[in-house]
Design a protein that fits this description.
The chain is of the alpha/beta class. 42% of the residues lie in helices and 14% in strands. It is built from 15 helices and 14 strands. The longest helix is centred in the last third of the chain and has 31 residues.
Length: 429
């Protein structure tokens, strides 16, 4: 009644404590509304590889940029790192274009490079492990655009390249598990995000998050376990518009989540549901999840990846044979073999034959070198390569020494398990 309202107003007016409490409540509500209104989405998208046989990594990151920007994530809030040599390679039958999926006609094809080509923040020699860690922690020493997210923002990190137990690779450097964990803790402690989602597509990528705590609001998804390779998709002789692209067009894990985002309203799919779709869709490896699993169960994927349903109508409707799926460790060998078999020019065929022989010789040298190392270290046949042990800090200096003195290639990274196994077997000594 009006009398009741009058009494309440009078009581409040005469009671400064109650009046102060009500004012605080209103201010808190206004602050909450303001923070919700100012919350933003940020993303860092990284292709850590170079050279044409890593076509798939460039196409995956370009596709991710397309999904996010078409899904409503502001371009100014996205940072991209890509060597950017593949689109312009002489081996690319469509110079200045990248395709993440086969298409029978160019009209139906989705050139994923078109949207990102003018928005690559770090290229060539700028694409390093140190720069990456500086970018995600907001350190201006990176020399360019860095993450500027705040305590109410959602952050999506996506990395695709080669990996091994405890490392993610860049062309001339590597991110170590201990450094990545330190960076995530720093981001959390300096309130650079409210929640963070991290997708890693690399061999043995599960090893990067074995020490991820559940209480720093990070949900991580990896393409593989800590002990298995990732796989390329659309390999063999994929065609776009009638031309063979002599490469794998994407990684199996990345293509699975990206193609789901192309055709699905992501406001209807939780992060956990998206993970399960990817887990069932990937055939060659076993995707893993880590960290804030309860949060993933209750949060829709559009909170990080945009609203979804972003593919051009023709491309979204197109179905194609998936072709072959190649082990990432064998990618260069498989591509050289396929190119050699397809070559018709005698000079080109001779050039490819020499490259193929050189690759086989390099692989055999790596086999012998790391077998001798394992023997010298008296390692058991069954190695414990886990990063979740008290000896994880041994991994960084051990990997750096192995890369300097033994050499790590995309193939010989399979023997990084010898280094990780030695750390655990000899208890960090």
């Amino acid at each position: 009644s009006k009398a009741t309202v009058s009494v309440l107003n009078c009581t409040t007016a005469r009671d400064p404590v109650r009046r102060h409490t009500n004012m605080l409540g209103r201010l808190s509500l206004l602050a909450l509304c303001a923070s919700m209104a100012s919350a933003e989405n940020y993303a860092v998208l990284v292709c850590g590889s170079n050279e044409y046989y890593n076509y798939r990594h460039h196409a995956d990151v370009a596709h991710a940029y397309q999904v996010l920007t078409r899904g409503g994530v502001k371009a100014e809030n996205i940072i991209t790192m890509m060597y950017d040599d593949v689109p312009h390679s002489s081996e690319n039958p469509y110079p200045g274009q990248l395709f993440n999926k086969p298409a029978s006609t160019l009209a139906a094809a989705n050139d994923v490079y078109a949207s990102v080509k003018d928005h690559i923040d770090y290229k060539g020699k700028q694409v390093t492990a140190d720069t990456y860690l500086q970018v995600i922690t907001g350190n201006a020493s990176a020399g360019g655009k860095v993450l500027q997210s705040g305590p109410e923002d959602n952050v999506f990190l996506y990395f695709v390249d080669h990996g091994a137990p405890g490392i993610m690779f860049f062309p001339e450097s590597q991110v170590h598990e201990v450094d990545l964990m330190n960076a995530l803790h720093l981001m959390h402690d300096t309130r650079m995000y409210k929640n963070l989602v991290f997708f890693v597509d690399a061999c043995e990528s599960g090893s990067m998050f074995e020490n991820l705590p559940a209480d720093i609001n990070v949900f991580a998804v990896t393409a593989a376990t800590a002990t298995e390779s990732g796989y390329g998709k659309y390999c063999g002789s994929p065609k776009v518009g009638g031309k063979v692209i002599p490469a794998c067009l994407g990684e199996e894990f990345s293509c699975t989540w990206l193609e789901e985002a192309d055709v699905t309203d992501l406001s209807t799919v939780t992060l956990q549901a998206l993970y399960e779709i990817v887990q069932h869709g990937v055939e060659k490896s076993h995707p893993q999840e880590f960290g804030a699993l309860a949060y993933a169960n209750t949060t829709d994927a559009d909170a990080f990846l945009g609203h979804g349903k972003t593919a051009p109508a023709a491309a979204a409707a197109l179905t194609q044979d998936e072709g072959e799926k190649w082990n990432s460790r064998d990618m260069k060998l498989q591509m050289l073999r396929a190119q050699y078999m397809a070559a018709t020019d005698a000079g080109r065929r001779s050039e490819l034959a020499a490259a193929l022989i050189a690759e086989v010789e390099d692989r055999e040298a790596a086999d012998a070198k790391f077998a001798a190392l394992a023997k010298k270290l008296a390692l058991p046949e069954e190695l414990n390569t886990s990063t979740g042990t008290p000896y994880r800090h041994c991994l960084k200096p051990a990997h750096e020494a192995a890369r300097e003195h033994c050499g790590y290639s995309d193939y010989s990274l399979k023997y990084a398990s010898v280094v990780a196994g030695a750390c655990n077997h000899w208890k960090g000594d």
